[in-house]
Predict the 3D structure of the following.
Amino acid sequence: MTKNLTLRERLSQQFFAIPAVAELWAKRAAKRTNQMVDLTGDIPFSPLRKPLAECRVALLTTAGIHLRSQTPYDMENPDGDPTYREIPTNVALDQIMITHKYYDHTDADADLNVVFPLLHFRDLVEKQVIGSLAPRHFGFMGHIDQALISVLNQQTAPEVAAKLRADQVDFALLTPA
Amino acid sequence: MGLIARNIEAVGVPTVTISLAKALTVAVGVPRAVFVHWPLGHPLGERQHPLQQRTMIFAALQLLLAAKQAGLMAEPGYRWRRETYTEPDWAQLKASVRGISS
């Protein structure tokens, strides 16, 4: 909730909203990720196997979304929170909120489509551009650091991957924040 | 975000990721990414700007259909708040049937 931030947190958000600053941050984050996770070897790749109009799609975002009824992400741990929240596909959008103090989500609060385009995808299903929506989507919080990067990579991300398989998802769209 | 995409792709589910941080996307090795040089917190663009948001979705779906190898990054080059967007031609995507990759 943006309004509860300290002045320092607010200034920091404005600073990182500058794309050039964000790019510097990304370079440092890349270095730290490399230290925690072995990224050598091939990038995993699975080809799309169906026409879009037959595909079932799931949405994932690290924008910090969760249902109002779910436990918010941990804002106290400076290394972030590698857990995730399941978002049912038929959710009413006003039941979704954002807990994330490392980016300015004023715009995403006002229009969730900025980070989580569920409404657009409902429309694309209606238009038969996409086959269907998965029964659940997944919210994460970005800004994960240090040992928690490994927890994400070895535990929570593989768990979500298995759930997408179980839901027979044909592809996933991932949006950061 | 990139690590999540890699994990999903590794179990056989294709992904397409929007990126606001090119260096991180390249370093992590994201299977398919659409990069835009926009402020953090706005992967699909401005609020209450559905045509811009839908244009980003369209770019992501186009890449998903076109990509035949890992590590591809599309850079549509949309400038922040200085573009005019129109409704994408979704029929283009319908016509493009990749089918099972050979």
Notes: The longest strand of chain A covers residues 56-61. Chain A touches chain B through 70 residues (CB under 8 Å).
